[in-house]
Specification:
Mean pLDDT: 94
Shape: globular
Bound molecules: ligand 6R9
CATH architecture of the largest domain: 3-Layer(aba) Sandwich
Structural class: alpha/beta
Number of strands: 28
Helix content: 25-40%
CATH class of the largest domain: Alpha Beta
Number of helices: 19
CATH topology of the largest domain: Rossmann fold
Largest sheet: 9 strands, mixed
Distance between the termini: 57 Å
Radius of gyration: 23 Å
Number of domains: 2
Strand content: 15-25%
Length: 567
């Protein structure tokens, strides 16, 4: 049977019970992601197998076995419990990619609490908005990030504990702060794992929309069923693999496939917690003998720019499988990889909301460079009309992606925002909000997003959030934020502003405003360019005509603006 045949075969005979069976789960049983990612692997005789190879700044390295992951997560779980934290409490993980982040995630799962991972690069405002929505009870963080928490602490009465994992005793702890040293704490051999069920909440990831504040995507422990099987069938993870997912767990890829996917299979994974550079990435892969690599197009484009030199300097012969996610993967990147690494990058498409890979290329399947591939077996997808949401049967016709609801890792709601959640379903389909078409062979081709969200380097940035933050700057009267094209990040944030009387349109002011956003929101949300206008283009009802500004940046036809003006 050819490998292509095996994809079709899998589609035909698919049932999620395949995954349930392999995981030994039956409907009604307890299911706990933390237990599956550590205790169960130890029970399978892999206690001494390496679970994590970690490398940080200054060449610092750490290595953990599955048994150590089990013990550390037990210990963190007990520590959190002793603080009075319990099931369904929201616990924010606000750390760099240090081992404590990964181990805390597992510990939080074990006590049935909800993990709320946030990028450590987030500024105080980004943090506050998300913690306010979740009414987070505790935050686990590092010394270097605690000042951001202190700045907003008084506005978060629900936040009871600020846990610092690398406290050095140099300065006194402040209000609500407590130190936790994982290495030094005596390990707990046995922890009573909270009896979470399929529908018990597990992870709360925040994602940005065009309007309103970021939305908290609620996932449940049953998501494991889908993350397990997609890790096996798309990432092709096998027992002796050395796997590297480059994503930060502040992003859904970093949890679904940077923690859960590999560990629930018992696969060793590597984490590199230093800034990006092509040479350090290749060196890291050589050093640990990475076999399976899950990364993103922005990184791939940067590697392409660096050329073949750094590749030739390192031995990447162990590498056997490479998958990409987060943004459109240009066909050139697929072809480049084939030429210099001897294999293509396989594209995969999904969302924070879907919890697992929806569309992708599979090992053995013919790759059409530029296409996202086909739906995962068990996922029924289609293209629907943008107005009526009726299924378009004709191939090659552009519409919105539609997915039949009901797969295990589907989000269960947006936190405290059921109305927006419901609005994502139309005519019986879940609508991710992306435009695409399907060709005659059933391959999906991405066309674009159906909203104004900016996808910069694979990270979604809400123009609304940046516009609101800009207005908090003393000099800014009005603001409009759109994307502009960029070689490496595909798109970057661009802001148009009008200034208040008395402020001058200088380069210095531009830098000041940029910095203000970087600190308040994050480096990713920071506009790469600020253009001063005397007046923003607006509709008659006073809405900013973002579409017009966007078209100008992309050199597109502005089109019929009369409709916009009547908006
Ligand atoms: C996992 C993740 C989701 C949005 C999604 C789409 C874009 C993701 C893509 C892709 C083109 C791909 N996206 N994968 N676009 N090709 N292979 O990325 O989650 O941060 O929620 O972003 O990213 O627009 O709707 P998230």
């Amino acid at each position: 049977m050819s490998k292509i045949g095996s994809y079709d075969e899998r589609v035909k005979n698919f049932n999620w019970s395949i995954s349930e069976k392999e995981l030994g789960y039956k409907e009604g049983d307890n299911i706990n992601i933390g237990w599956y990612c550590s205790d169960r692997i130890c029970d399978q005789g892999k206690a001494d197998k390496i679970a994590l190879n970690w490398e940080g700044l200054g060449g610092k390295i750490k290595q953990y076995t599955f048994n150590y992951v089990r013990l550390c997560s037990n210990t963190i779980g007990q520590f959190l419990r002793d603080l009075g934290l319990k099931d369904e409490d929201r616990i924010c993980l606000f750390m760099d990619k240090i081992p404590e982040l990964y181990l805390s995630f597992v510990g939080v799962m074990k006590i049935g609490a909800i993990a709320q991972p946030l990028f450590s690069a987030f500024g105080d405002e980004s943090l506050l908005v998300r913690m306010d929505n979740a009414e987070t009870t505790a935050i686990i963080t590092q010394r270097k990030h605690v000042k951001k928490v202190r700045k907003i602490r008084d506005r978060m009465p629900y936040l009871k504990h600020i846990i610092i994992v690398d406290y050095d005793g140099k300065h006194p702890l402040q209000e609500r702060e407590i130190a936790f040293d994982m290495e030094a704490t005596e390990k707990i051999e046995k922890l009573d794992i909270f009896p979470t069920k399929a529908e018990s909440p597990s992870v709360l990831h925040y994602t940005s929309g065009t309007t309103g504040q970021p939305k908290g995507v609620k996932h449940v422990h049953y998501s494991l069923i889908a993350q397990y099987l997609t890790s096996k069938w798309v990432l092709d993870l096998k027992d002796d693999d050395v796997y590297w997912c480059t994503a930060d767990p502040g992003w859904v890829t970093g949890t679904s496939y940077g923690i859960i996917g590999s560990w629930c299979i018992g696969v060793r994974q590597c984490v590199l917690d230093v800034g990006f550079s092509p040479l350090s990435w290749y060196k890291f892969m050589e050093k640990y003998g990475v076999t399976v690599w899950y990364t993103a197009p922005t990184a791939i484009r940067s590697l392409m720019k660096a050329g073949e030199g750094p590749i030739r300097e390192n031995d990447l012969s162990k590498l056997r499988h490479m998958v990409s996610v987060g943004e459109p993967l240009n066909p050139e990147a697929v072809v480049w990889a084939l030429k210099v690494l001897g294999m293509p990058f396989l594209d995969s498409y999904w969302q924070t909301e879907t919890g697992c890979i929806m569309i992708s290329n599979y090992p053995g399947m013919e790759v059409k460079p530029g296409s996202m591939g086909k739906t995962f077996p068990g996922i029924e997808g289609c293209i629907v009309d943008t107005e009526t949401f009726e299924k378009i049967e004709e191939s090659g016709k552009i519409g919105l992606i539609g997915i039949k609801p009901g797969w295990p890792s589907m989000m269960r709601t947006y936190w405290k925002n059921e109305e927006t959640y419901q609005s994502k379903f139309q005519n019986g389909w879940y609508i991710p909000g992306d435009r695409a078409y399907i060709d005659e062979d059933g391959y999906y081709w991405f066309v674009g997003r159906d909203d104004d969200v900016i996808n910069t380097g694979g990270h979604l940035v809400s123009p609304f959030e940046v516009e609101s933050a800009l207005l908090e700057h003393e000099a800014v009267a009005e603001s409009a934020v759109v994307s502009k094209p960029d070689d490496v990040n595909m798109e970057v944030v661009k802001a148009f502003v009008t200034l208040k009387p008395g402020f001058e349109q200088t380069d210095e002011m531009e830098l000041k405003i940029m910095n203000f956003i970087r600190k308040k929101l994050s480096p990713l949300a920071m506009p790469q360019e600020i253009e001063y206008l005397d007046k923003l283009p607006k509709t008659r009802s006073g809405k900013i005509m973002r579409r017009l500004l966007h078209a100008k940046e992309w050199g597109e036809e502005i089109g019929d603006t009369s409709g916009l003006e009547d908006d």
